[in-house]
Fold Chorismate mutase family protein.
Amino acid sequence: MGTITSRKRKDNSTAYTAQIRINRDGKTVYQESQTFDRKQVAQAWIKRRETELAEPGAIERANRKGVTIKKMIEQYLEEYEKIRPLGKTKNATLTAIKDTWLGELDDTALSSQKLVEFAQWRMSKEGGGVQAQTVGNDLSHLGAVLSVARPAWGYEVDPLAMSDARRVLRKLGMVSKSKERNRRPTLDELDKLMKHFFEMQTRRKAQIDMPKLIAFALFSTRRQEEITRIRWEDLDETRQAVLVRDMKNPGQKIGNDVWCHLPNEAWAILQSMPKTEKEIFPYNARSVSASFTRACPMLGIEDLHFHDLRHEGVSRLFEMDWDIPRVSSVSGHRDWNSLRRYTHLRGRGDAYKKWEWLSKLVSPVERSGHAPKGAVIAH
């Protein structure tokens, strides 16, 4: 049963403090108090709260200490990094979000209104003045955390908060999808990069063989994270194929292992690597990206990402008149809509047929390969 006590304030008004104390087996298991200006309101509050606390599990939920969004994000980064390294963009975005005012909110305080407020703040000068595309990315990465916080960790997260917020923000034009990139490296830009990294190798023994990595990424169409995960045991010599583990896929990021055909050039580069580690390219994916990113501005190359090599590789295969099933056997795409995003044609034929750098990376025998022409690997 709740109690109400009154006291005079300095301004001579009366304050009514309503208190609820619940005992079990002679011990206080829960207590709560609120102060009101009117006694009737205090009585109504006691009645409402006692009804709520009488529901099964209500006292346990009320006694539960909330966890902040910051702690939630930290747990996500720690636990999921062990399963599979997160992309640098997602990692950086979540790290930035947890250090904002949103990170200080408790799980129960996170609502669609707060998420909309966060989006508006991000687009303001104080929040960085970002564009709708960036807001969309922020909420997408945060949504990944919220989607596991309740079922996996039992945190009190409103399951509709994110979807409701995104619906409102879309109507306001405050979120948008990432723009499709059509950036492809030119042969001149690739010449600069290959020359730069070959010269670095002659000056000092580089830890990462960037020339082979760049060429392999281009001819295999593989992402940098996939390349550094490939093991010697993942090769199928008969089919000239590689098992790409945990291939990126919107609906299945873990356990999505796909067999992909390797064109002759990619197979030759792979076979030229020394068998000193279980991984064929035993490098850190982030270090590979950092090395590539540092080199581009030094060489006067603007707005080129390592991932653009995948665009180049896929587009090259179409320019060589490969059909969709054959190209997808290399890229690993499951449908034309996804594959289309990586296709930006410049002409016909193989621009790399007499590429001088390939002969510097592998021998003529390795370069010939041995898979039957037009072979398609099922996936």
